[in-house]
């Protein structure tokens, strides 16, 4: 008997979704949900994610895209989780370059440098590959993701982070679009600074070999689950280097070779 066939799974999925929703609403980290889901039932964890997301949509949130997590070896090593996952991006998670983010909206935030893809076409083939991603991408942007966890102390198994919407928090997009033509994203170097001091280094090849490869993986996963990527979606393609804890207010500036810069401004409260 697999975890997914085990008796009482629907009730345990509901319990996990309720725990994560309560943690998000109260801004109080909770115990891991793997006690309900086990360590390996990825499908059950995605069902928890779907239910929590459905609650947000019912409350008025709008889906604007998807994110890929756990792509960089440095991040996988940080958590001992060695496979990528994905989550949903909502409109209230999206910020622009230098737009203030209130620190109190997060529980345990960390920053990471990424490349965001903005799609001009649907990618709905189950066997989608790199060529499909290249054709569908209208432009890319430098981006900072503020990852967050509803799980106390970031104590994660793969089922915890999947259920918790791939540990999503917010994302900050640059304002100058770059076409993919003549760009080799695997060669893009990254430096993330906090208040002017370099705190994280990385490169495009750390993201499953290339961010384009990561987006192709996501497209196949979502098409297989009948939730394909659509024109207009923003895709956060995954970390290019180690994530950095956010312990208080500060300015996080990401510089990407050939793709400009973007800055996330973390404030105690928005003005």
UniProtKB/TrEMBL annotation:
Gene3D superfamilies noted in UniProt: Fumarylacetoacetase-like, C-terminal domain
Name of the molecule in the record: 2-keto-4-pentenoate hydratase
Pfam families: FAA_hydrolase
Fumarylacetoacetase-like C-terminal domain segment(s): 83-263
Annotated keywords: Lyase
InterPro entries for this protein: Fumarylacetoacetase-like_C, Fumarylacetoacetase_C_sf, Hydratase-Decarb/MhpD_sf
Species annotation: Streptomyces pulveraceus
Top-rank lineage group of the source organism: Bacteria
């Amino acid at each position: 008997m697999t975890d997914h066939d085990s008796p009482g799974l629907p009730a345990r999925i509901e319990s996990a979704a309720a725990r994560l929703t309560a943690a998000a609403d109260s801004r109080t980290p909770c115990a891991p949900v793997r006690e309900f889901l086990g360590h390996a039932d990825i499908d059950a964890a995605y069902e928890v994610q779907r239910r929590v997301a459905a609650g947000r949509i019912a409350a008025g949130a709008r889906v604007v895209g998807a994110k890929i997590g756990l792509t960089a070896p440095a991040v996988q090593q940080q958590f001992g989780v060695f496979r990528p996952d994905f989550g949903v991006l909502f409109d209230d998670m999206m910020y622009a370059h230098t737009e203030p983010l209130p620190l109190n909206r997060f529980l345990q935030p960390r920053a990471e440098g990424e490349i965001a893809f903005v799609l001009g076409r649907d990618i709905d083939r189950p066997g989608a590959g790199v060529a499909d991603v290249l054709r569908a991408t209208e432009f890319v942007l430098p981006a900072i993701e503020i990852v967050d966890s509803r799980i106390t102390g970031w104590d994660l198994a793969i089922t915890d982070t999947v259920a918790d919407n791939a540990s999503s928090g917010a994302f900050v997009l640059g304002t100058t679009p770059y076409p993919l033509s003549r760009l080799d994203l695997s060669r893009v170097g990254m430096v993330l600074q906090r208040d002017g001091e370099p705190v994280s280094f990385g490169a495009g090849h750390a993201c499953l070999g290339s961010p384009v490869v990561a987006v192709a993986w996501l497209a196949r996963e979502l098409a297989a689950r009948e939730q394909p990527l659509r024109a207009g979606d923003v895709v956060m393609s995954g970390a290019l280097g180690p994530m950095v804890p956010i312990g208080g207010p500060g300015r996080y500036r990401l510089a990407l070779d050939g793709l400009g810069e973007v800055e996330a401004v973390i404030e105690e409260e928005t003005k």
